[in-house]
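Memo to structure team: turn this sequence into structure tokens by end of day. - J.P.
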Amino acid sequence: MPVSTPAPSLTIDCDQCTMQHTDACEDCVVTFLLDRDPEDAVVIDADEARAMRLLERVGLVPSLLFEERAG
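Reply from structure team:
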């Protein structure tokens, strides 16, 4: 039986980013996700969802693991 190796991980640490404290932070997906209230939903439009699926297909972003609760 083949042994599966874990997928490589990516740690994003803003303190290690060369773009930290520049205008790039305002347009960064990490800032977008972390600079919101924990109870806020992340809402993307149809074009953004299409782009995410394309990036997923080529292995640039992981699959979305979200599953809506029933009821």
